[in-house]
Every structure is written in structure tokens, then in C-alpha cells.
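Before a colleague's protein record goes any further, I have to sign it off. What it holds is a sequence and that sequence's fold in C-alpha cell form. My question to you is simply how this chain folds and whether the C-alpha cells agree. Thanks in advance; the entry in question is below:
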Amino acid sequence: MRVIGGKWKRRRLESSFGVNKASIIRPTTDRVKENIFNIIENLNTGNPLVGARVLDIFCGTGAMGLEALSRGADFCHFVDKSIMAKRISLQNIIKLGAEKSSQFTMIDILDLSHNNDLASDLVFLDPPYEKNLGEKAISILLKYGWVKRNAIFVLEKEIKSELSCDLKLIDQRKYGKTEINILCAFDLKI
């Protein structure tokens, strides 16, 4: 696992600490990550990465948020409830020297409450499959002011599960058993 583009291009990231096929942490493959960022950087609304405030929810290894920082985001807030995810993410943040532009919060996303910080422009969500946590997390982020009115969401989910949220679907791609949904909140009243 590595950073694909930007200032940390080709830098390797830690992905071990017991991560395996049975693990709840499923790092996004380099190929899928590269495709996601190509789509994001070429949106009709302009590249939302430059100067962005990013949320990496269910962050696992932190690879998506770190990729965003590498490509021009100003700040990334990493969120996961797993101690393993915390260890791996913090190791990767330190390895890339991203401590000043990062924050890690160890919490169950369903326990988030009102945001007292700046709202985010871009959100990555890679929840455990078969639990519909992605849609629940999006609802919580919108309800408690974690995202800006025009935020972009990148939701990874299992292909066989239905997408049910009020966001506008911008793009959708399938990679094996994974479906990537790029959504926006442009028309929502937040």
C-alpha cells in the first residue's frame, strides 16, 4: 500500500498490525484509490482537494485521508473506533510527517454529536460491509454540522447492498465486490 500521487507520491504506508482477509480493516487497493482520486480531481465543480478540509470516516489505515493531504488538502480528521486503526493511522501520519495537518479521533461514528470545529469539504467513508453504516454516518455528519453544504462524499460499499441516502449521486464505479459512490449535498438544506 502506498500514496499514489502528490507530494508523497510512491511513499509506502503501513498496513500490517494483523490486517488480513478476516480483519474488519480492508485497505482500499491502490488501483481503486487511484481511480477515486482521478474522478474527484476531475469533477465538473473543480478539484475539491486543493485547500480542502477532509474527514476520513472508518479510516482504517488512514490511506484515503493521507492521499488527500498529499494531493493538496489542508487538513484531515481521521475517525475510527478500532484501536488497530488508530495505531496504523497514527503510524502512517507520523511516517509522512502529517501531524500538523491531521487529527485522529477514536469514536464510534454513531456516537458523534455536534461539531464544534470547521466543517469539512470532502468525506471518505469505508464502513464495514453488511451493516449500512455508510448511510447512517452520512446522516449523522449532515445532522450535526460536520460537513459543508456543498460537501463531496466518497462512499465505499458492498455491491449487493442498496444505496439509500438523500445525496445526489455524481459517479458510481464497481470494482470486484466493491462499489464506489461519489455523492454531493449541493441541493440539501443543511
About this structure: The first strand starts at residue 53 and ends at 57. The two ends are 36 Å apart (CA to CA).
